[in-house]
Every structure is written in C-alpha cells, then in structure tokens.
Design a protein that fits this description.
- InterPro entries: EF-hand-dom_pair, EF_Hand_1_Ca_BS, EF_hand_dom.
- GO terms for molecular function: calcium ion binding.
- By secondary structure, the chain is mainly alpha-helical.
- It has one domain: Orthogonal Bundle (Recoverin, domain 1).
- Helix content is about 55%, strand content about 5%.
- The protein has five helices and four strands.
- The strands form two sheets. A two-stranded antiparallel ribbon has the order 1-4. Strands 2-3 form a two-stranded antiparallel sheet.
- Helix 1 packs across helix 5 and helix 3 packs antiparallel against helix 5.
- The protein binds calcium ion (3 copies).
- One calcium ion binds next to strand 2.
C-alpha cells in the first residue's frame, strides 16, 4: 500500500514529466519521443528523449542543471524534489531517476510503453 507521501511524490513526478512532454509537444518534438513512429513511447524512447533534453537544458554544458537552466519547466519545488542530494544542481542521474519513475507511474498497465 502506498503512503500518502509516496502518492504525493508520484503526483509531483507526473506533473514534471507532463510539463516536459507538453513542452516537447509545443515545440513539435513529439516525433522525436516516438522515434520509431509506433504510436507508443517505449521506455527506451523516453530515456533517449530525456537524455537529449538534459543536453539541451544544460546551457553551460557543465553536466548539471541549475535552477536557471530549468526555469521554464520546473518550479522551485519541483527542482528541489528532483535535486535528490540537495546540492542545488540537478545531475543527469537525478533527472533520469525522476523521469523514469515518472514513466513507470504513467505506464499504468505496466507494458513498458506509453500510448
Ligand atoms: Ca515508439
Ligand atoms: Ca548547467
Ligand atoms: Ca543534485
């Protein structure tokens, strides 16, 4: 059974992923997520897209995201929640951990892809 805190964290994760997906849709990048045009986004496709997104967001190419670099997609609270070790920067691992948890939360039937 999920605790209330776990449920709230899941809700936050979904919000962040949804915001990123919306951003991608807005920029006409949905084809980039569904790389093989199967009509579904697989875990691999999602991971590849988010890895690419990390590279684009990391404006100064220092390997981590500052709050300023994520200002368009993360609120201060979302940034703090993603910054697992609390060092004020979101590393690639921290982002990937979060978005892949988000993927799992969104994959309600557990088949490893999002329709
Ligand atoms: Ca696909
Ligand atoms: Ca950076
Ligand atoms: Ca961090």
């Amino acid at each position: 059974m999920k605790s209330i805190i776990a449920t709230m964290v899941s809700a936050l994760l979904v919000c962040t992923g949804a915001a990123m997906a919306q951003e991608a849709m807005y920029k006409g990048q949905q084809d980039h997520i569904d790389a093989d045009k199967s009509g579904e986004v697989s875990r691999q496709e999602y991971q590849a897209f988010m890895t690419n997104a990390f590279g684009k967001l990391d404006a100064d190419k220092n390997g981590s995201l500052s709050q300023a670099e994520t200002a368009n997609i993360l609120t201060a609270d979302q940034f703090a929640a993603t910054d697992a070790n609390g060092d004020g920067r979101v590393s690639k691992d921290e982002l990937m951990n979060r978005v892949m948890q988000d993927f799992s939360a969104a994959d309600k039937n557990g088949d490893g892809s999002l329709q």
